[in-house]
Specification:
The chain has one domain: monomeric porin ompg (Porin, Beta Barrel), CATH 2.40.160. Helices cover 3% and strands 55% of the residues. Strands 1-4-5-7-8-9-10-11-12-13-14-15 form a 12-stranded antiparallel β-barrel. Strand 4 and strand 5 form a beta hairpin. The N terminus is likely disordered.
Length: 323
């Protein structure tokens, strides 16, 4: 794999440490609480230089626990009187494989494919039969291909744009052992083809710290079986501090706004909302070709439409290989 360009020593250390390039993951918050981590680990967006022809492969593991039932911004323990079910818990574990290729100093592309393992429990009759219903499956999720173009480049800062597509590669008709098909917000795939556009900027300070910000929008363009996932806007900002030749500390703020789902197979009254998370992290360089990273995702603010299971906490861990 081609080596990176040679920035100043502090920046070179941070560059090696932050070189993690998963595709941007935006959660699909809904009544059953299917979700993905908001942490941004696209190292190019962080402002790390690379050479033309550089290839990076990454495996990332996301663990997301949702066992807090919320109505608006408050915790609750009861379902509305007209609810079809009382949600109890959703546990999502996702393995994301990503491949990033840099064409030249300004152009690049990242492709990702997730495998989703999800367990969900709810009471089908919250005011009657207490017998729970459960789903437990492992399936492919929706693939993403996102390109980037850097249109402003300087020694200490960069500005660029992103554009891409989300493909409906994940199934949206998974059922449980009793043959009951899961609601669409719980499925590993949305059945929708969505467009992605965004902008980013990054800055390297004199002490070697790397700052970045990104704004990204995702909206469905083509849907299936009368379900349209809500539009999503994600704003992320973060910084990386190199503390030694092999270790860097990282921190991010991740804000999400998501519109309501629509269609006869949707639950618009119990979908969408807004949230803000703080995500501290750590990166460690094993070798010039191998880096490790880990993050925690902790909620600062959550507001859900209707009654939904909300993300209580999440964890991210990954390994990055350079060719």
């Amino acid at each position: 794999m081609p080596r990176m360009l040679h920035p100043p020593p502090c920046r070179a250390s941070a560059a090696a440490l932050v070189a993690t390039a998963t595709a941007f993951a935006i959660p699909a918050a809904a009544s059953c609480g299917s979700a993905a981590c908001l942490v941004n680990t696209q190292w190019q967006i962080h402002g790390i230089p690379t050479e033309a022809g550089g290839t990076l492969f990454q495996l990332q593991y996301d663990y997301i626990k949702q066992d807090r039932l919320m109505s608006g911004s408050r915790k609750t323990s009861v379902a509305p009187e007209d609810a079809d079910a009382l949600e109890q818990r959703t546990l999502s574990q996702t393995l994301i494989a990503s491949l990033d290729y840099t064409f030249d100093k300004d152009w690049g592309v990242t492709a990702t494919l997730p495998v989703v393992s999800r367990k969900h429990d709810h009471l089908a009759d919250p005011y009657g039969d207490p017998t729970p219903e459960s789903w437990n499956f492992t399936q492919l999720g929706d693939a993403r291909v996102v390109g980037r173009y850097r249109f402003v480049a300087a020694d200490s800062y960069n500005v660029g744009a992103q554009f891409g597509i989300v493909l409906p590669t994940g199934p949206h008709d998974v059922s449980n052992a009793g043959g009951i098909v899961a609601e669409r917000s719980l499925e590993p795939g949305t059945g929708a083809t969505s467009g992605v556009i965004g902008a980013y900027a990054n800055f390297t300070s004199h002490d070697g710290a790397i700052w970045f910000a990104q704004l990204q929008f995702q909206g469905a363009m083509a849907t299936k079986d009368d379900f349209r996932p809500g539009n999503q806007v994600l704003l992320t900002g973060g910084v990386t501090w190199p503390v030694s030749e092999g270790v860097a500390l990282m921190g991010q703020l991740n804000g999400l706004w998501r519109g309501r789902d629509s269609g006869t197979n949707a639950e618009p009254e119990d979908s969408g909302g807004r949230s803000l998370f703080f995500s501290p992290g750590l990166s460690y360089t094993v070798s010039p070709q191998l880096q490790l990273h880990a993050f925690a995702q902790l909620p600062l603010y959550r507001y859900v439409n209707g009654t939904q299971l909300a993300v209580n906490w999440a964890a991210v861990g990954g390994i990055t290989f350079r060719f």
